[in-house]
Q: What sequence folds into this?
């Protein structure tokens, strides 16, 4: 067993996470966490859909921001995918997708203010980078043979439309639909920085202890996502995309002077702005590195590694819940419900709720990340086991789990896990806004203190860290010869 | 010009030479059958010829090269994609023009499958898919036909119908065939390939099936 590279890699990561636990701040600090949790669940089962009309407006805005953002992102991403083979384009895309939607929103808020453009661009920009990468991967998979058979002198556009697009059409559509679902989640959490979407509503309900209102919001959000196949129809899409911009709300007008100030003054490192020149830059930078960047990086890494392993453990525990290889329709139905809820709730919302209930520490973040990501991978692996045919006399129960199923799905399990590594890190960084000392915490405090120069450097560091983890994840997947689909 | 004269045809695979060096001269009006046992290098030679005479040829490759997600019509229409402007092709992708529909239907009729015009290619059987690739080559209407085992998935009568059609529509052709009887019947020159070299090159009138069998 130990000689298998996949087992060895798993054990190394488990070891890193255990060492990380020694340094991590894991605690429940709330005075009565279980009562709060009980109240919250009571709120979920006694939802109040009629407390204010704000809820419906928030729902509408959430959908509108998601549609406009994802549509814009997919259009730009498609154009970028056509030139994705150029190195500068790849670097550009890697960079814009390494910065979380909420960071983009925090940046745009500084100069567009609470204008709809802030929310739209916060979704559209990182999504363009993701779309560009995945679209180009899908297009590259198209069978090249029909293209070679075309008469010479065939136009580039006609050749592309006839030989590349039809082959990939289904995959492009599936992936875009999947991203629309992600867009709804992104749009919801944009409310946490003040945009008029569900997150805003959730935060205000929670801060007033209105758990039934919060419960109603969560239930509506699940219904919205679960019913997507019913209301997102190809024929209706143009209506949604063209109509959505009219439902983004007015927001506040853009003050263009802010924009100029932001780029020419705010983000210029303060020593340069104050005329101290390069001599002042070095102490400023080292102060930033030692007091904010390094602790932020350390905490982000520790939390990411713990959350990654927790996700893996949860996945392995959760996938049998929906697998056909174990008995019980009741178990399977409840398993499906659990996994749907776990994967449709954005990590950020889960972390926010748990943080309110348990008090600030890394624990709510780890649990939130593990629940959400474990839900996603558990669902995929569970579905994969359903296509496995076991011999009629295969063992049952735990032996079936450990001897027949886990060995068969372990490689794709690892592949998905390493694919989501970078995503987990991006979320870990952003959870800092909730008060956990990851990079997001230092970015958020810098912005609160109107020190945008520092915030920009920290966001840049976060992006580079993500790009690094992404590259490492890809290296490990290649080294272990693991393959995944992009829709995860 | 619709004949061609190729020299120095070679191909290597993994450092080992699989074809040539050999020369092949085909004159207008010649219908050449490439015969030889599988692995002799027929497909490789076919590819080499296609690379050299690209602009002048209608090709039916062994793996057909169909776009599975598109209907039969569009797969056939692709044979003349160079004849139309980008906007014309784009409109056709959504809603084909009547004159093109008629022309494509005519070709499919000759191949006995006009009712499949709007079927997605992915849903067709192997023989039907092969006929779509042949229809595309016919629609392309180049002066030279290059076909690699174009009747391998067709039953007897259909195979004869297709070979007849190809002989009638293309003045000059090079067709790789494993069926010796077919080669003798529909081609006027037989080129036998053995170990990547031309082992036989005769007019088919001078040959009997037994003469060719020595290659196998």
A:
């Amino acid at each position: 067993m130990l000689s298998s590279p996949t087992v060895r890699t798993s054990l190394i990561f488990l070891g890193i996470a255990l060492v990380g636990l020694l340094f991590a701040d894991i605690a429940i600090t709330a005075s009565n966490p279980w009562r709060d949790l009980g109240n919250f669940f009571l709120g979920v089962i006694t939802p109040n859909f009629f407390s204010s009309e704000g809820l419906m407006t928030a729902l509408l805005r959430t959908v509108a921001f998601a549609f406009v953002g994802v549509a814009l992102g997919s259009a730009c991403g498609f154009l970028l995918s056509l030139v994705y083979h150029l190195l500068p384009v790849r670097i550009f895309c890697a960079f814009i997708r390494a910065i979380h939607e909420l960071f983009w929103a925090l940046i745009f808020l500084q100069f567009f203010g609470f204008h709809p453009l802030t929310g739209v661009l916060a979704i559209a920009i990182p999504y363009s980078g993701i779309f560009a990468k995945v679209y180009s991967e899908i297009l590259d998979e198209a069978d090249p043979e029909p293209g070679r058979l075309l008469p010479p002198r065939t136009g580039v556009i006609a050749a592309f439309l006839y030989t590349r697009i039809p082959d990939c059409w289904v995959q492009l559509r599936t992936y875009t639909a999947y991203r629309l679902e992600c867009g709804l989640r992104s749009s919801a959490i944009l409310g946490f920085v003040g945009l008029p979407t569900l997150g805003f509503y959730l935060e205000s309900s929670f801060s007033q202890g209105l758990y039934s209102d919060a419960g109603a919001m969560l239930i509506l959000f699940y219904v919205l996502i679960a019913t997507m196949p019913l209301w997102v129809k190809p024929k209706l899409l143009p209506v949604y995309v063209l109509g959505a911009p009219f439902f983004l709300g007015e927001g506040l007008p853009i003050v263009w002077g802010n924009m100029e100030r932001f780029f020419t003054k705010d983000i210029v490192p303060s020593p340069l702005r104050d005329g101290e020149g390069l001599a002042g830059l070095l102490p400023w930078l080292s102060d930033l590195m030692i007091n904010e960047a390094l602790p932020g990086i350390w905490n982000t890494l520790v939390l990411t590694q713990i959350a990654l392993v927790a996700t893996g453990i949860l996945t392995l525990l959760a996938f049998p819940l929906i697998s056909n290889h174990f008995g019980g329709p009741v178990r399977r139905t409840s398993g499906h419900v659990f996994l749907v809820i776990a994967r449709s709730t954005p990590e950020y919302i889960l972390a926010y709720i748990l943080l309110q209930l348990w008090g600030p520490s890394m624990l709510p973040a780890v649990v939130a990340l593990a629940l959400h990501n474990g839900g996603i991978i558990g669902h995929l692996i569970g579905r994969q086991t359903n296509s496995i045919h076991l011999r009629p006399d295969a063992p049952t129960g735990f032996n079936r789990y450990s001897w027949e199923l886990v060995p068969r799905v372990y490689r794709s399990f690892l592949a998905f896990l390493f694919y989501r590594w970078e995503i987990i890190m991006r979320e870990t960084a952003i959870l800092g806004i909730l008060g956990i000392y990851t990079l997001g915490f230092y970015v958020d405090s810098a912005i609160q203190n109107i020190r945008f120069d520092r915030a920009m450097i920290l966001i840049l560091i976060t992006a580079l860290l993500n790009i690094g983890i992404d590259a490492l994840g890809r290296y490990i997947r290649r080294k272990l010869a693991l393959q995944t689909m992009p829709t995860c | 010009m619709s004949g061609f004269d190729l020299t120095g045809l070679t191909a290597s695979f993994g450092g080992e030479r699989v074809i040539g060096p050999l020369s092949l001269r085909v004159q207008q009006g010649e219908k050449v059958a490439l015969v030889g046992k599988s692995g002799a290098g027929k497909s490789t030679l076919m590819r080499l010829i296609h690379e050299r005479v690209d602009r002048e040829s209608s090709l039916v490759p062994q793996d057909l090269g169909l776009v599975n997600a598109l209907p039969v019509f569009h797969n056939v229409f692709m044979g003349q994609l160079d004849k139309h402007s980008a906007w014309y092709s784009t409109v056709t992708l959504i809603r084909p023009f009547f004159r093109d529909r008629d022309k494509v239907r005519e070709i499919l009729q000759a191949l006995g499958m006009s009712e499949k015009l709007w079927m997605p290619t992915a849903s067709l059987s192997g023989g039907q898919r092969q006929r779509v690739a042949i229809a595309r080559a016919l629609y392309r209407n180049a002066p030279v036909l290059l076909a690699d085992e174009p009747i391998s998935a067709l039953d007897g009568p259909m195979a004869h119908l297709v070979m007849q059609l190809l002989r009638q529509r293309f003045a000059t052709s090079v067709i790789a065939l494993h069926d010796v009887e077919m080669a003798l019947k529909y081609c006027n020159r037989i080129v036998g390939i053995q170990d990547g070299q031309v082992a036989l090159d005769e007019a088919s009138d001078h040959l009997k099936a037994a003469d060719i069998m020595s290659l196998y």
